[in-house]
Design a protein that fits this description.
5 helices, alpha+beta, single chain, three-stranded antiparallel sheet, about 190 residues
């Protein structure tokens, strides 16, 4: 017998998709914050949370689709009737962005990737020197101002993590609730 959800009101893939959008908005706000030093770890945390939520949707959509007579997902091609492991393989094959999210989520969750390790995926923090302290600059300024970008290299192609997450959101929204696609325009 299935146990009741213990989720503080999140009880459907649509709710988790809205949370995923919230994660993306958090990341976007940290990436555009003017104090790059102060925004670094909040951005890392937001990217971590967003990747986990993006991949967690596979569990939620799969479980949701297993419920007898549940028509809330309509005719989505995500309703495959496959076992969870096959379903997740299907998701990885149809969305390279979710394959990347799974890699990052599992690495963060398990302190390294074991299952489904992909040697072609590398997570990178690209640090750039913006300015160096020089004579005549205001006292109290950092010795070096740095900016950074959160990137993923997948088989030689480099992608910004925000772009990956936005594409993953679009993948899920098209299948779960197409009206939510407009949220990315906010």
């Amino acid at each position: 017998m299935a146990k009741s959800l213990q989720t503080f009101q999140l009880d459907s893939p649509v709710h988790l998709l809205v949370k995923f959008h919230w994660n993306i908005k958090q990341l976007r706000s940290h990436l555009t914050h003017e104090d790059k030093a102060a925004a670094f770890y909040p951005a890392v945390y937001a990217a971590f949370d967003a990747c986990i939520t993006a991949w967690q949707l596979t569990d939620w959509v799969w479980k949701f689709s297993q419920q007898d007579g549940d028509v809330r997902l309509g005719d989505s091609e995500l309703l495959t009737g496959r076992p969870l492991s096959e379903y997740q393989m299907w998701i990885r094959e149809h969305s390279s962005d979710l394959r990347i999210c799974q890699h990052i989520a599992n690495s963060n969750k398990h302190f390294g990737v074991g299952k489904h390790y992909n040697a072609n995926i590398k997570v990178v923090v690209d640090w750039q020197v913006e300015s160096v302290f020089a004579a005549g600059m205001a006292v109290g300024r950092p010795l070096v101002d740095r900016s950074w970008r959160l990137l993923v290299n997948d088989s030689g192609y480099t992608h910004d993590i925000l772009v990956i997450l936005e594409r993953a959101f679009r993948f899920w929204a098209k299948q779960i609730q197409p009206s939510l696609l407009s949220l990315l325009d906010e």
